[in-house]
Specification:
The protein has 10 helices and 8 strands. It is an alpha/beta fold and 284 residues long. Strands 3-2-1-4-5-6-7-8 form an 8-stranded mixed beta sheet, sandwiched between helices. Pathway: Lipid metabolism; butanoate metabolism. It comes from Streptomyces canarius.
Length: 284
């Protein structure tokens, strides 16, 4: 197993989840965020997610956890084997961070943007070596979901693709490589469906609980679309829907009023304690 650290940028839900996956498989991680509050909260959240993964039996037995170090700026990036950007779903913010990172690492360092909807080739213009950039779409929580969508941009190099495939296999994930497009496969299918489910609740046809019960019991959806929205983060879901609407013109991707209201109210799902459902601190 290689011992060079992986740099993860962003200590939000996905950054912490990806860090948990990597550390749980014995890899050293440099977790970077310029928000001191998020950074201070990250170790406790990682411990809770590692404990859940251990209870679920999805981590290698007997393997020592990788060391996680915390950093407040990009000075931690040089020397990383792979850099995974996992900041908020905003193309301008992502391009700015990726541009800064690409100036700090040598050519042939794999740069990974973890995104649910933004086309990789849009982001590639910001980096010095577009062949080094690739996309991933980890599902939440990454340590519990064994398949990862990998997005190969039109300029992504073969060496970058193989480096990321290798890393994912190293941590027990099955990489499925898809071509670049808005929303790729998972978000292009899932996010408009969640939007429709929220619209059904908005229109008073059924409660959130009943929508999820029918989708689970009749159509085999494992958690139900609205519990899934809470897990994704309703704010993140809305950001993704705006990206899809802008880039595809599909009106089915326009966030419905209920989703927009929940974002405005700060009811973003599990991470805030309330979304379509309410959550106790111990379940977040």
């Amino acid at each position: 197993m290689k011992t060079e650290p992986i740099a993860v940028l962003g200590a939000g839900v996905m950054g912490v989840g990806i860090t948990t996956l990597l550390a749980g498989h014995g890899l050293p991680v440099r977790l970077v965020d310029n928000d001191p509050v998020k950074l201070a909260q990250a170790p406790g959240r990682i411990r809770r997610e590692l404990r859940m993964a251990q209870l679920m039996g999805v981590l290698p037995p007997g393997r020592e956890e990788g060391e996680v170090s915390l950093h407040g700026d990009l000075s931690a990036v040089p020397g990383a084997r792979v850099v995974i950007e996992a900041i908020t779903e905003n193309a301008d913010l992502k391009t700015a961070v990726l541009a800064d990172v690409s100036a700090l690492v040598p050519p042939a360092t794999a740069l990974v943007s973890n995104t649910s909807s933004i086309p990789i080739d849009e982001l590639a213009d910001a980096v010095r070596h577009p062949a080094d950039l690739i996309g991933t779409h980890f599902m939440n929580p990454p340590a519990l979901i064994g398949t990862t969508e990998v997005i190969r941009g039109v300029r992504t190099g073969e060496a970058t693709l193989e480096a990321v495939r290798g890393l994912l296999r190293e941590v027990g994930r099955r990489p499925v490589v898809v071509r670049d497009a808005p929303g790729f496969v998972t978000s292009r299918l899932l996010h408009p469906m969640i939007n429709d489910a929220a619209r059904v609740v908005q229109e008073g046809t059924a409660s959130a609980e009943d929508v999820d019960a029918l989708m689970q019991g009749c159509l085999g959806h494992p958690t139900g679309p609205l519990r899934t929205a809470d897990l994704i983060g309703i704010d993140n879901l809305v950001d993704s829907l705006w990206v899809l609407l802008k880039r595809t013109g599909d009106e089915g991707c326009r966030p419905c009023d209920l989703l927009l209201q929940k974002v405005a109210d700060g009811h973003h799902g599990r991470k805030t304690g309330q979304g379509f459902y309410e959550y106790e601190e111990s379940t977040r």
